[in-house]
What we know:
Number of helices: 5
Strand order of the largest sheet: 5-3-4-6-7-8-9
CATH topology of the largest domain: TIM Barrel
Number of domains: 2
Radius of gyration: 18 Å
Bound molecules: iron/sulfur cluster
Amino acid sequence: MKEMTWIVDVVTGALTVEGLSDGDFARLASDLLPHPQHVNCARPVGVPPIKDKVTTSSSAGEDERLRIFRIYHHSVVEGPGRRSVVQFSGCDRRCKGCHAFEAFAIDSGALLCIAEVVEMLLATDGEPRDGVTILGGEPFLQPDGLAVLMRELKKRDQHITLYSGYTIEELRARPEPGVHEALALADILIDGPFVASLTSGANEWRGSTNQRIIYHPADYQTEGS
Ligand code: SF4
């Protein structure tokens, strides 16, 4: 039996299909639907990385900077509903088969003021949105800036889905205050590395079945706790 997911964006009418090869799609729906476009894990295609630049800003977060690879809107598979997404630069896990390989280098993307990241995420061309998703790269490589960004987003009533290639147990063992503040501010944490052999049945939001969808990670009880 083959599992597939069909997602209709109720605002744009766009249809996203997961779990079908090009050939399967053509056999099933080519007489009904236009030629499909690949959307790597349902993020919009063709969104270029941010070019390196150092910005200035006079609003909240002006002293804090983050290395950011890409920002895009209207993702429907990286957390609940429609999301504006920020992809952090840098990942030291290098999971085999990870689609975010372009963002592996810590000096990829651009160094941005957090105020500008907030502004870009909440830009009107991303509306309507159900929240913001933070992924990587590995967001916890920049824990202090991550926490400041999440604080600013929470001040603006944003629902936050946060991805990490580390498990919540690994993150909780880290000493940096920013790691713990970020875990406390997240509405959803999707944790753990991508494992290419465990993609079957991962369903929505996750790349592989080892990853966990943890609602309110601040309240998550680990075994023995
Ligand atoms: S931790 Fe995430 S971003 Fe990093 S290699 Fe693994 S899947 Fe890719």
